[in-house]
Amino acid sequence: MAFMKTNSRRHLLSAFVLVICGSLAFAEDADRLRLQTTPVETVSSPGQEEMAVREAEARWLEALDHRDGAALQTLLDEDFVDITWKGEVRDRHAAIAALNAPGRPSMTQTLHEVRVRFAAPDVAVVTGINAVSSKAPDFTARIRFTDVFVKRAGAWKAFSAQETLERAE
Question: I need a surface site. Which of 4, 67, 133, 156 has the fewest CB within 10 A?
Fold first, then answer.
């Protein structure tokens, strides 16, 4: 019987040692994981980023309608490239210069079917239809567009654009 008590105590002691060692090992792993964890950064929600891209698109349209070269320069990335509905390729400088081109009519533009998708956290693709109208000369047009925005230093900039004439009247 003394043998059984001693044996039981050994098992109890062994179990106690295993629990303590396991707890220490778990605590060590937890400390190691805490050290490896990077601090949580404040990240905008996808809804906020989509709204910011939509606002940049609206400011772009407003800059075009009001022929505001300074606003357009702020919105277009330095590497901006535009493929116009006529198939012309324009860089940032040419796009800004086109605002005040002789013979450029005054027009109003309204966007429809605008869709914003994110290719990466700092790259957005905007597609839609731009309904353009002018009184002199009198015309209307529907232009499908794809605009690519990149986020630089916290601001969304137009990086690329392509327009396709869908219908002109």
Answer: 4
